[in-house]
């Protein structure tokens, strides 16, 4: 794990010298919180997709009802409240892989992942200006933890109901973390 952090730091230093850095600009905290919400859901969805669809878990009580039957059922691991809660506890650690940046083409704030899921460098470094901030992006993890803690039940409910477009429903509709009029939806620079 320390090797990963050392490699990440080395790569960051290399690219920091090779491109312009924007000094710790003060951006709208609501905008940043909205971006963190969306990236957190993207990370959670990636983890859920890794779950074997055939994996199931028994839920419910093991007490007999008045008729002598057990009140439990089998659900997909991806819908298990306990499993979803455990994944939510770890998803915010993935915010360590993100930095604040501005797309060079339009100056839009984004959360930029340093490493791709396969461990290679993100190929879009030339398309962004990294934002050098005083807290070394610890606020990203802080915002993620706050959102997950505050709205965990809503998020679990959405996944258990197999809601469509969980990111939009969770971040915009159900929680209001992102204002409905927000035009800073996570977007990739148009090339």
UniProtKB/TrEMBL annotation:
Domain of life of the source:
Eukaryota
Arranged from A to Z, the UniProt key words for this protein are: Signal
Q: Which residues form the signal peptide?
A: 1-18
Which Pfam families does this UniProt record tie to the protein? Answer: DUF3456
Q: Establish whether keyword Signal is in the entry.
A: yes
A GO cellular component term found in this entry reads: endoplasmic reticulum
The question of whether Oxidoreductase is a record keyword is answered with: no
Protein family according to the UniProt entry: Belongs to the canopy family.
Tell me what this protein is called: DUF3456 domain-containing protein
